[in-house]
Amino acid sequence: MAIPCHTMEDIVGTLRSSLGSLGFEVYPFKVAWYNAVTSSAFHLRHPEDTLAVVILSTPSMFERLFLPFLRSRRCDLVKDPIDQCVTHTITTFISQHFPDQSVEISFDYEILPNRRPKFLAQTAAHVAGAAYYYKASDIPNPPWGDKKMFGVCVHPRLGGWFAIRALLVFRDLEAGPGLQQTPPPNCVTSREDRIDLLERFNFHWQDWNYRDIITAEERYSPQQKEYFLTPPAQREALLQKWGFLTEVQNGRETEDTIGDDSH
Ligand code: B12
């Protein structure tokens, strides 16, 4: 039975203790901080003091949550399995723990009809103090001329070994003066290192070296690397090889395996 939570501290504490044990990190921020840096087309349409929370997945999410999710056979292979797992976990968690709150949930992979992402994950991570967002526009006299270079966030403990998964907006909750903005740790300081980082992310992102721009305390396991290095179209075959998928997920199984819920 969920206990209604009403204060920002309760909410953030509940999110941190529960989602933390599944391999997520949780960072609160105020809508005003995000809107202060983005152009109006990307603004979050909520009053400026509204509590928002950005959720990151750390390397251990794969073993703590994703593999058990696959074993629970909730995965239907219609959507990306990781997206499905994160979506299921977060939406279920919010409805069970905060039934009295109106929470708008957005996921990193959601794109609006106008082709814009529902939220700017990197900006949210930066303003919340989670991971510094390094952008070409911050580099004086950049060496690439007018070429469009995508920016990248670096986490002080995980380097690039993480993903930004979701944004929660607690529509009726004001964060108030108890929440003060802390800048994210700036761990790539020199111009040369920032150029190196952006070149790794833009020109060689497939080799994942951008993730090791600083020494990370935690990295993806060999199994997780194998999963993400497998092209999406071949992941179903990989999961089958690992023994996670049975024919039930393709809708072809007999009833005796349905309902085995070990999640
Ligand atoms: C569309 C998209 C792509 C597109 C285009 C990339 C892009 N950046 O536009 C493509 C397909 C190319 C792509 C590729 C990749 N992507 Co991508 N992608 C996205 C996605 C869905 C949206 C990005 C977007 O459209 N941004 C819109 C532009 C306009 O935003 P912007 O450039 O940041 O501009 C804003 C800021 O500059 C801000 N701003 C202005 N001033 C200031 C000042 C400050 C201080 C701050 C904080 C902000 C700020 O205002 C601007 C808007 O007004 C995000 C997830 C998400 N929901 O955000 C992932 C994301 C950026 N991708 C990610 C990754 C990892 C990748 C890949 C490595 C592939 C992969 N998934 O493994 C490659 C690498 C890039 C490459 N070399 O190709 C990660 C990055 C993680 C990180 N550490 O930063 C994200 C965050 C996904 C995630 N779940 O973690 N991607």
Automatic annotation (TrEMBL):
EC number: 1.16.1.6, 2.5.1.151
Entry keyword NADP: yes
Entries under CDD domains matching the protein: MMACHC-like
Underlying gene: mmachc
Gene Ontology cellular component list: cytoplasm
Reactions catalysed, as given in the entry: apo-[alkylcobalamin reductase] + methylcob(III)alamin + glutathione = S-methyl glutathione + cob(I)alamin-[alkylcobalamin reductase] + H(+); apo-[alkylcobalamin reductase] + an R-cob(III)alamin + glutathione = cob(I)alamin-[alkylcobalamin reductase] + an S-substituted glutathione + H(+); apo-[alkylcobalamin reductase] + adenosylcob(III)alamin + glutathione = S-adenosylglutathione + cob(I)alamin-[alkylcobalamin reductase] + H(+); 2 cob(II)alamin-[cyanocobalamin reductase] + 2 hydrogen cyanide + NADP(+) = 2 cyanocob(III)alamin + 2 apo-[cyanocobalamin reductase] + NADPH + H(+)
Cofactor: FAD; FMN
Domain of life: Eukaryota
Keywords recorded for this protein, A-Z: Cobalamin, Cobalt, Cytoplasm, FAD, Flavoprotein, FMN, NADP, Oxidoreductase
GO biological process: cobalamin metabolic process
Species this chain originates from: Chanos chanos (Milkfish)
InterPro entries, sorted: MMACHC
Subcellular location: Cytoplasm
Family recorded in the similarity comment: Belongs to the MMACHC family.
Protein name per its UniProtKB record: Cyanocobalamin reductase / alkylcobalamin dealkylase
GO MF entry, a single one: cyanocobalamin reductase (cyanide-eliminating) (NADP+) activity
